[in-house]
Amino acid sequence: MSLLEVQNLKKYYATQKAVDDVSFSVNKGSIFGLLGPNGAGKTTLIRMITGIFYPDEGHIIFDGKRFDPVNDVVKIGYMPEERGLYKKMKIGEQAVYLAQLKGLSKNDAMTKIKEWFIKFEMQSWWVKKVEDLSKGMSQKLQFVTTVLHEPKLIILDEPFSGLDPVNSNLIKDEIYKMAQSGSTIIFSTHRMEQVEEICDHIILLNKGKKILDGSVKGVKHQFKENLFSIGFEERPAGLNGNPPFEMVGTKDHSYIVKIRDGHKPNDVLSYFLQQDARIISFNEMLPSLNDIFIKLVEGTPLTRQFQETTA
């Protein structure tokens, strides 16, 4: 069941189509990846979902009814890429203030903030000012103030920026826990490996339009190109006869091959076994989301990308 439905959303600036007839739905409890190059329309789309901008056309359905920017905004936690903390304000006071803006009483805010500060080892920060924090420390504080009122929808724009691996894993674990507890998360980033690891479903925007929509697993299978990696004890010196594949690249003791139309993986194995080659591994190479992103945005064929990285 979906928590958020975006229906034919449009937003224009003069002659620029920032968001051009975009539709998608986000299921409850899912981690949803919103991807796209700079200028694709991601930020404009997020600002419409959070009620900062009004769409020129289209509708937003939130939790089964038409989105109401006045009443529904407290059910959303938004962590923008451009951080919005008050630099001169003490951290504890600021966290309480932001929690009260989201509808928590002062006592409830204090209780939840202390729990989060203990979890993230931030207890000693209470009387510090934001301007005294490192980028990574500010990031942790921004994350806490985004999620402490337990919103139904959490939108995280580049949440790992500036974080070391330990704190990245800390926040990543909390994202998983919140999704398992029923929160719905929209995750926007340029880091494709993070999307591949974290997200259940993705959409890709380019020049204001949606050009890809699907589960991470389904998208990777959709763009597979019959590429296989074959590892040998000792790589064959050459190819004899008419092999049932095209050579794409080589790496160490491995070949990267593309199976020709009309042939199957077993044909490739049989070909090398007939040459007494000692095969130690044989794996299909599914494209990464980064490969797919480059293919769709820049038009670079996936096979060429493998050639460039393995040759």
Q: What does the secondary structure layout of this molecule look like, with pairings?
A:
Blueprint: E1 2-13, E2 16-27, E3 31-35, H1 42-49, E4 57-62, E5 65-66, H2 69-72, E6 76-79, H3 91-101, H4 106-119, H5 135-147, E7 153-157, H6 165-180, E8 184-188, H7 192-198, E9 201-206, E10 209-215, H8 216-222, E11 227-232, E12 245-251, E13 254-259, H9 265-274, E14 279-284, H10 289-298, H11 302-310
Parallel strand pairs: 3-8, 3-9, 6-7, 7-8
Antiparallel strand pairs: 1-2, 1-4, 4-5, 9-10, 11-13, 11-14, 12-13
Helix pairs in contact: 3-4
Question: Can you describe what's shown?
Answer:
With 311 residues, the protein is an alpha/beta fold. The protein has 2 domains: 2-220, Rossmann fold, CATH 3.40.50.300; 222-310, no CATH class. A 6-stranded mixed beta sheet has the order 6-7-8-3-9-10. The two termini are 46 Å apart. Strand 12 (245-251) and strand 13 (254-259) form a beta hairpin. The protein has 11 helices and 14 strands. The chain is 35% helix and 29% strand. The longest helix is centred in the middle third of the chain and has 16 residues, at 165-180.
